Amino acid sequence: MPPEISIVIPVYNVEQYLRECLDSVINQTMRDIQIICVDDGSTDGSPAILEEYAARDPRIEIIRQQNRGGGSARNAAYPRIRGKYTFFVDPDDWIDLDLCRLCADKTEATGADFVVLRFIEYNPDPRCSPAFDPSLPEIRRTPEEKDEIFPLTGTWSKFWQSGFLLSNNIRFSEGKRPANDMLPAWKGTVLAKRIAVLDQPLYHYRIRRGSYLQTINEKHFIIIETFHEIEKMLHETGLYESYKNIFIQWKLIWFYRYHYCRYPRLLRPRFIQLLRRNLTKADREFCRNASPEIFDKDIRNFYLLLVDGGRFGPLKYHFINDCITGKDVFFELVKWPERLLRRHIIKPLKSFLMAVIQSPDLR
């Protein structure tokens, strides 16, 4: 008989965390599960740990491949999936022991294509993800009702009907790239007829230093290509017009701006140049016409940096935005070379103060 749930775990050099992850999976209160572990070319003690656990638990199946990235590892498990439901777990995370039972019960009761759940993030202290909007229905069907689900791109926040996942070819982006789960998250969300919300934090998400997501470099510029893939998918499915505003909003406001603020100062100019070259006519129209509720002052300043930043655009953006949000106004100024600080900040400020001191009004 096929198992009730297939759990997929991509594994790469996580010996420090793997036992905690596997223990949380094999000890699920729902016992009828299949556990597919894909060793993505690990060079540490992870393969030995997988063999140890597989020797004592026949539900564990191991797939081995050369290192090709987390998305490729998850895709490699697809031919082995036999469960009615599918859930993806990252190997440095762990799950509540009741997760499978609660998610399966919710899916069975609602007939949803997938269930979306909350999580607890450890960075390094635990922080629970926000509760879902109580004014929205438990079952999401329309683009407007699905809106708050789009930022939850992590594969571990969704419990899938395997038939829906496989029949719609909802697969991960191949290669060693960050955000390899954004495309399947978006594709699954727009194609789903019914999405059920399980408003419980059942997944424990660990943000660790040195992980691929946390290593910020030029490879993360591929986020632009990821949004091209999502836009292409929306056109191919005939759903672009239905989700255009939501897509552009999250692309510009959340992901582009979020990544820009995470990059070191030396990477930001190049990233801005790439964003400018990839800013579409639809992006510009959306930004010009967006309401203040969607486009607050912070976001509008970032958009102005994109379309008409000029030489001192980044300085203007950080200076003005930090004043508005109450952050440290000199967040960016302190990173300037001393010569530029003297020419553009210290010298003008000194001249201004001297003029004030010498003013007749003060005598």
Fill in the keyword field for this structure.
2 domains; Spore Coat Polysaccharide Biosynthesis Protein SpsA, Chain A; 14 helices; alpha/beta; ten-stranded mixed β-sheet; 363 residues
Notes on the structure:
This protein is α/β, with parallel strands linked by helices and 363 residues long. It has helices spanning 18-26, 46-56, 70-76, 99-110, 143-146, 162-167, 182-191, 223-236, 240-262, 268-278, 281-289, 297-308, 313-325, 338-357, and strands at residues 5-11, 33-40, 60-65, 85-88, 94-95, 114-122, 126-128, 139-140, 158-161, 195-206. The chain folds into 2 domains: 5-215, Spore Coat Polysaccharide Biosynthesis Protein SpsA, Chain A; 240-331, no CATH class. Strands 1, 2, 3, 4, 5, 6, 7, 8, 9 and 10 form a 10-stranded mixed sheet that branches. The radius of gyration is 24 Å and the shape is globular. The model is unreliable at 323-334 (pLDDT under 50).
Which structural class best describes the helix and strand composition?
alpha/beta
CATH superfamily of the largest domain: Spore Coat Polysaccharide Biosynthesis Protein SpsA, Chain A
CATH class bucket of the largest domain: Alpha Beta
Q: Which of globular, elongated, flat, extended, rod-shaped describes the shape?
A: globular
Proportion of β residues? 15-25%
What's the alpha carbon Rg, rounded to whole Å? 24 Å
Number of helices: 14
- Indicate the mean pLDDT: 85
- Total count of domains: 2
In CATH terms, what is the architecture of the largest domain? Alpha-Beta Complex
Secondary structure: number of strands: 10
Poorly predicted sequence stretches spanning 5 or more consecutive residues: 323-334
CATH topology of the largest domain: Spore Coat Polysaccharide Biosynthesis Protein SpsA, Chain A
Element-level helix/strand string: EHEHEHEEHEEEHEHHEHHHHHHH
Helical content (DSSP H or I, runs of 4+): 40-55%
The description of the largest β-sheet is: 10 strands, mixed
Distance between the termini: 95 Å
